[in-house]
Amino acid sequence: MKKSAIYFGILITCTSYPVVSRAQSSVTLYGVIDSGINYTNNVQKGKTATGFTGGHQVAMIEGGSAGLQGSRWGITGTEDLGAGMKAIFLLENGFYSNNGALNQGGAMFGRQAYAGIKSDVGTVTLGRQYDPVVDLFRPYLAAPQWGGYMSAHPGDLDNAQNTRRINNSIKLRSATWHGLTAEAILGLGGVAGSFAQNSIWGAGASYAAGPFSAGAAYLNVSNPNTSFFGANPNAGPATSNNLGSFGSATSPESNPVFAGYASASRMEITAAGVGLTLGALNANVAYSNTRFDNLGSSAGPNPLHYAGAAAFNNVEINLQYQITPSLLTGIAYDYTRNGGAGGKHGADYHLFSAGLDWFLSKRTDLYTIAVYEKASGIDSTGSQAVAQITGLTPSSTDRQLALRVGIRHKF
Question: How far apart are CA 142 and CA 316, in angstroms?
């Protein structure tokens, strides 16, 4: 028997056959709008041969890169396939709530876009996805709990705050067994004649038992300038610096913490965190190591003629206290050490964060965040290191203070 129907202006014709049972399916629309007022005491306007220009205070409504969460909307769905299996999909768009512009370089579904199969054993998904560092290490940091993007590690150098996603990826995630969960991902490079070029792979695991939990992950990125930092639609080719910029007389720097390492042929991130919850108190300690290897390759520009490797070590300690069911507070300290390219020079970054979050309901909360950073040494651009609070324009000096008052609504 032939049946025809019109949905949203599309003509669909199908042939129906007798079936034993009808599959159950669901589609859900969801989202987050996070907007607030930011004050920063010092931001660059440009960089000259004699130093930085600017150093001005700035206050603005910021809706995309400084709040507790990036504003987004998404569609997720499942279909019961029987025998304990389900087809799943997720499409998630990121946007700036202050002006409505698309985030993630203008991608329609730049946060996530994948489809897959879920069973009692685990899940297999294909598309644009989060990596194991984000899934398994990030929960032990202040940023996703109460600190937001401003409390993330300088420039989000280890991607623990999920600034970058993996395109063309296959992801395997196990079901949780006695508190243990494992995950692996492979991002296909898509380069004819070279399976390894631009490829990304990683793995990790997490464990939880009573008040204790732990997570660890590893990510290995080939040609990070294009495969990882260049994964958004507005990214340039290998001749461009997708990690950041050195600044100019008319424009500020971008990610000076690691912008000088665009010529690395490989990037490796190793991260681990542990957490303990005692009543209303949650405490976490996290460590990450980020390496840019084989500097001077053809993967990206190398104006400072770096060679060898540059490694970052990062340690964070954070506390969260649930004052009442609707009010929580947190404090954190983060230390980052850049050993310098080939062991030359190097820089240190000290980051202090504090936050207060008041839940008016299950869907709406008001919050405030204060972040202070102090830098020293010589950074990746070969200049005196400046403070760079994640998501904001770098300072013209070695210090930067940022305050935010915001509102977040989930639907």
Answer: 9
